[in-house]
Amino acid sequence: MKMKHVLILIFMISILSSCQKNLDIIVTDPNAGPDTSWCTTITETMQVSRLREDLRMEVFADSFQLNAGAMTNFQSASGLSLSLMGGDLITPNNQPYFGLVKMKSILLNSIGDMVRMGAQTTSYGELLETGGAFDFNLLSSNNEPLAIKYDRPISIKYQFAQPSIQGMQVFKGDMMAPPASNWILVQDSFNFILPGLGNNYEVITNQMRWINCDQFVNTPSNQLTKLAVVLPSNYTNANTIVFTSFDNRSSVVGMRGNPVDREFQSENIPVNEPVTISVISKQGGNYFLGHLSITTTFPAVGNFQHIAITPVITNLNNINNYISTL
Questions:
Q1: Whole-angstrom distance, CA of residue 250 vs CA of residue 316
Q2: Residue range(s) in the chain whose domain bears CATH number 2.60.220
Q3: Domain made up of 221-323: CATH architecture
């Protein structure tokens, strides 16, 4: 009797195991893997997040002395030059601060730098042309956060990779969005740009954290198109970054991975613009790069101008060298 029970149990386990195998075949995408599935939410453990960390630029730490009644000119390791008077900085209690000032900063002075930091030149979907962006934060000697006194803006100078453009305005980073992914125009008389000679800019501002020197491209709505990049099935939003850089202007737009359409898309792109579509991916510890130069057009069929790209295996050094050419 016991042997009969054992045989019945083995038979039932065999049936259940067979059902599970069939179920796995039904629900699993044969092209999917741990790094190659489309996702609705990107997490820090995914390959694309690790890829962004691989590309991310260094944040520099400096310090300088701020004395009462004296002008301080400071050159940071990131490339930002600050000019401020004693009394321009205040504590959280709204008291003037003097003494040692700690500074953390990063300067994005090229489109390649924008790409490395996952930044783009858009304001609520409208295209911007940039003259450079930077992030800086000032702290007291006790690591207490400092602020710039509202009516005493400071001067920040730097150089950009392209000649300076007249008419630039101050934009601040949208703190409700991923860093440097959306920019808000600062409509305040204490914030403005003094264009310099050559590649130089001077920003007068009472803002801290992310700041971008920009102007709107101002393309009529009937001259805008949409782009969609189609990649081999193992390239997904969980392991791949795609962006559009403009050949004739300092602008770059990140392309959003659409898990439903399984393609990377961007909107509000001016037509008749020469652009370069770049694809960077990390899969199983390997790096891949693909890029294609096109001229934007209205799509002949559908809502999107579709571009097919097949990246090739490479290494991180080659990717960084490529990004530097943008």
A1: 24
A2: 55-216
A3: Sandwich (2.60)
CB 26 within 8 A of CB 19: no
Task: Look at residue 301 in the predicted model and tell me its pLDDT.
Answer: 80
Residue matched to tokens 């990131």 = 78
d(CA 277, CA 44): 25
- When pLDDT is cut at 50, 70 and 90, the band that residue 175 belongs to is confident
What are phi and psi for residue 11, nearest 5 degrees? -60, -45
| Phi-psi domain of 15 (left: phi exceeds 0; alpha: psi -120 through 50; beta: other) | alpha
Assigned CATH for 55-216: 2.60.220
Over its C-alpha atoms, the chain yields an Rg (Å, rounded) of: 25
Q: What pTM was estimated for this model as a whole?
A: 0.86
Give dist(CA 293, CA 42) in Å, integer.
Answer: 28
- The CA distances from residue 197 to 158, 163, 188, in Å, are 11, 8, 25
Instruction: Compute how many other C-beta atoms are within 10 angstroms of the C-beta atom of residue 19.
Output: 10
Give 10-49 pLDDT, tens digit per residue. 344 343 343 333 322 222 333 445 567 899 999 999 999 9
Question: How far apart are alpha carbons 221 and 218 in whole angstroms?
Answer: 9
State how far the Cα of 51 lies from the Cα of 49, in Å rounded to an integer: 5
Element (H, E) at 219: none
Q: How many CB atoms lie within 10 A of CB 137?
A: 14
Residues 181-227: pLDDT tens digits?
899 999 999 999 997 889 999 999 999 999 999 999 999 999 999 99
The per-residue b/e assignment along 24-54, b for 16 or more CB within 10 angstroms, e otherwise, is eeeeeeeeeeebbbbeeeeeeebbbeebbee
Residues contacting 221, CB < 8 A, separation 6+ = none
Mean of per-residue pLDDT scores for the chain: 89
Looking at the chain, the domain(s) classified CATH 2.60.40 span: 221-323
